[in-house]
Write a structure and sequence with these properties.
seven-stranded antiparallel beta sheet; 4 domains; 795 residues; Immunoglobulin-like; alpha+beta; Neutral Protease, domain 2; disordered N terminus; eight-stranded mixed beta sheet; Chondroitinase Ac, Chain A, domain 3; single chain
Length: 795
């Protein structure tokens, strides 16, 4: 280590020891930033200028202030006419100046040079007669990229108002955030453009773009004011912009209705020759030329960037790891825009398509890792989880809360925290306070952890009470570390024509949830199926296709991952619903040893269609590509001809080998690709099985819902468990039966804690079990429940 490097490290230590540990923004505040910048050297690709930073001390004892500035050379630093000492260390300009709480001063930094750009996306760009910047760097650390063109505190928490004075060549125009207040023609023929942004923003949202622009403008009658809309674009593209932005006013209306009034002085876009994406600079969105083509093909991008005027610009994530608060909400706003312009059906179609993509490929798109929304890693800050899973999770939040509370509480959150950095915890607490419902379970499941739940019926038997249906819903997990809590679900009672006759709303919690539903008298005999979340209000680990079949022919069911051919109808309109579960099926006894049930997916088929005259194709694909793969790689560990198709008519039935199919491995039995061609598609459940004798047979699942729904005793007469409550031991007595083989103790979640052979009269040692409620169960060799008794252990 060189002496110079050692001194640099010591200097940095002294700087950061002089300010609060949480960063310079907690010690010194930038109140206003005035940027004078000359952008005329298109050949040499350099800029020069100065930034006057109005500062306010927040704490006592600060004597050095580190500003962020990347690559550009600093010529001098002044306070008024007085030169201030400074030092450059890496991306820092460290200025010696004393601050106490309440101290105010303006420091001007003079700089010049060739501005940098990110290795992947963002920074400063020169392209023909364009010069512009994008305020974030996808690879940069930190991602904030104000520092590529002016000195600042480059973080998500520091906010200031801005004045921009940008000098351009003759015939060029500069677009910045805020309002254009005028221009000055200089003696050398250059022009200086003056912009004022009166709303405070973080450093990365400040912007400049220079080219031979024309201005396209109109007005929007907003919720609280008439808002000017201005776009900088080449004159030849003016009409294309008007056509491509024909729904911008609709987007404004959708977002004001959903999020509250627009808080900025204008809506602004500026066209730039960028090859991918856009950047939501406040009042001056950098928008790619390719999306200004006169069509509506890119209008969702237009809406996404506009939505940042609420999510990202009005409220800003406090850290990069909270980027879902910016980008997840902007992505959800695309759905909201679609719903407003094209209707509810279009919204649902967009949600369903996104749902399938997220659950199937989201893991792959983010480098084969599952990440939570809050706490996402640096490499995936601008990744698929943040944007797309974030948007889908917000749709789920809407489903949890219902539209009235959702939009009311979202609007009040934006109003309460306007022009401030925010955290997921603040968002959670505000929604809880506003709605009167504790949103902690939602945030714990969907925001602070990765993965997705799936909900399925374990049992739906009738009770002894007229019109009462006992329902047990099991929760399974797809890549989630813990069960989701307080999940609101709609149970639709549907007849075989697909008509919903009744809807019940329940709240599922934990692995198993039992409900006794009192149905209206006319419902009990008027339905054939119960469906969980038929409207996909909670996008979980189940995707589904429904069809009302009015003609024979071929149907591609993308969300069910199945193709069918209908050869005959039962009526003028047949109904079919197929659900694809992205979790494993219950392992009720499979036909023989060495046959293993798929642990990641299965199907449920229902409807009043002609199954005997309907054929189907289900494909398997164990490749690791995002063009049909990511389905069965971990499951298929043998040759493809070891695969079989299993079937059961009801979740309570044993799995059996399905007989109405042929396996087609597509000519290669080792590439993990092929299909099952089914000659009949019967209502019930389907799953893949594979023969592999090298793997131990799985222990068949118990019927957990029967076990955990026991009130007192179950089945066998003269069967008893005592003492109850128990302490150190329990005794089980009952009539001898050749069918009974296993005695178990399970907890209230269905987990097996103790297991031993049934000997007719048996002592069970419970001394190691903690106090609480348990169930003692007796089952036969096929895992059928013969007897059960709830017991209490106390000491």
């Amino acid at each position: 280590m060189s002496k110079h490097l050692v001194l640099s490290v010591i200097t940095l230590v002294s700087v950061f020891s002089a300010v609060a540990q949480t960063g310079i923004s907690d010690s010194v505040n930038i109140v206003h930033t005035t940027i004078h910048l000359t952008v005329t050297d298109f050949a040499g690709k350099t800029i020069q200028g100065n930034a006057a930073l109005e500062l306010e001390g927040l704490v006592d004892g600060v004597n050095e202030v580190p500003f962020d500035l990347l690559a550009l050379d600093v010529d001098s630093v002044k306070e008024g006419s007085m030169h201030l000492p400074f030092e450059r260390i890496g991306e820092k300009v460290i200025i010696t100046s004393d601050f106490n709480a309440g101290t105010t001063k303006t420091i001007t930094i003079y700089y010049q040079g060739e501005p940098d750009k990110d290795d992947l996306w963002g920074g400063w760009y020169w392209s023909g007669d364009y010069a512009y910047q994008l305020g974030v760097g996808f690879v940069a650390e930190p991602h904030n990229y104000g520092r590529v063109w002016y000195p600042c505190f480059d973080n998500f928490r520091e906010r200031s108002t801005f004045s921009f004075h940008i000098t351009t060549p003759e015939g060029y125009k500069a677009f910045c955030g805020g309002m254009l207040t005028g221009n000055t023609i200089n003696p050398d023929g250059t022009v200086t453009w003056h912009w004022e942004l009166e709303q405070s923003i973080p450093s990365y949202l400040a912007s400049v773009a220079v080219s031979t622009y024309a201005t396209v403008e109109w007005e929007y009658e907003g919720m609280e004011a008439t808002i000017p809309v201005q776009a900088g674009v080449k004159a030849i593209d003016s009409n294309k912009l008007k056509d491509s932005f024909i729904h911008l006013n609709d987007a404004m209306e959708a977002f004001e209705n959903g999020y509250g009034p627009y808080r900025w002085d204008r809506v602004g876009y500026v066209a730039v020759p960028f090859s991918g994406g856009a950047m939501e600079h406040a009042c001056n969105i950098a928008y790619p030329n390719f999306a200004i083509d006169g069509s509506l093909n890119w209008e969702s991008l237009m809406a996404h960037e506009l939505a940042h005027s609420w999510w990202g610009n009005l409220v800003t994530c406090s850290e990069a790891s909270e980027m879902w608060l910016n980008e997840g909400w902007a992505s959800f706003s695309e759905f909201l825009f679609t719903e407003h312009v094209y209707g509810t059906a279009a919204y649902r179609e967009a949600i369903d398509a996104t749902h399938l993509e997220v659950i199937r490929y989201g893991y792959a798109y983010d480098g084969n890792v599952f990440e939570p929304l809050a706490g996402v890693t640096h490499d995936n800050t601008y990744g698929y989880t943040t944007y797309t899973r974030g948007a889908l999770t917000i749709h789920n939040l809407r489903g949890y809360m219902g539209d009235d509370l959702f939009f009311e509480c979202i609007s009040s959150f934006l109003d309460t925290y306007a022009f401030q950095p925010v955290t997921s915890e603040q968002f959670r607490d505000h929604l809880s306070s506003c709605s009167g419902t504790d949103m902690t379970p939602f945030f714990d499941g969907w925001i602070f952890n990765a993965g997705t739940p799936a909900f399925e019926f374990q049992s739906n038997g009738l009770s002894d009470v007229t019109n009462v249906r006992n329902v047990c819903i099991q929760q399974k997990l797809n890549a989630a570390p813990a069960y989701f809590g307080n999940v609101p679900l709609e149970i639709s009672f549907v007849n075989d024509r697909g008509h919903t006759t009744h809807v019940e709303r329940v709240v599922a919690d934990g692995p198993l949830s039992n409900f006794s539903l009192l149905l209206p008298e006319d419902v009990e005999s008027a339905y054939t199926y119960m469906i969980i979340d038929r409207e996909n209000k909670i996008a979980d680990a189940v995707t589904a296709d429904e069809r009302f079949l009015t003609a024979t022919g071929n149907y591609t069911l993308d969300y069910a991952l199945m193709d069918i051919e209908v050869n005959a109808l039962n009526s003028d309109t047949d109904w079919l619903r197929i659900e694809h579960y992205w979790v494993g099926a219950d392992g009720k006894v499979v036909p023989e040893s060495g046959l293993h049930l798929h642990n990641q997916r299965y199907w449920r088929v229902m409807g009043g269609f002609n199954g005997e005259q309907t054929t189907a194709t289900i494909r398997f694909n164990g490749t690791l590509n995002t063009s049909g793969g990511y389905l069965d790689n971990a499951f298929i560990n043998n040759s493809d001809d070891s695969l079989v198709l299993l079937y059961r008519a009801d979740p309570q039935d044993d799995w059996m080998l399905y007989t109405h199919y042929e396996l087609d491995p597509w000519g290669n039995k080792t590439d993990k690709r092929g299909e099952f061609e089914m000659s009949q598609l019967l209502p019930g459940e389907y799953a893949f099985g594979i023969y592999d004798h090298s793997i131990p047979d799985a222990v068949p699942d118990l019927n957990d819902c029967i076990y955990t729904n026991i009130e007192q005793g179950y089945l066998l007469e003269n069967w008893s468990v005592f003492p109850n409550p128990g302490n150190d031991a329990l005794f089980v007595e009952g009539p001898a039966t050749s069918a009974a083989t296993l005695l178990r103790i399970i907890d209230i979640t269905g987990a097996i804690l103790l297991q031993q052979d049934w000997l007719g009269k048996t002592r069970i040692d419970i001394s190691e079990l903690p106090e609480g409620n348990y169930i003692v169960c007796l089952s036969d060799g096929k895992e059928q429940l013969l007897a059960a008794q709830k017991v209490l252990i106390i000491r």
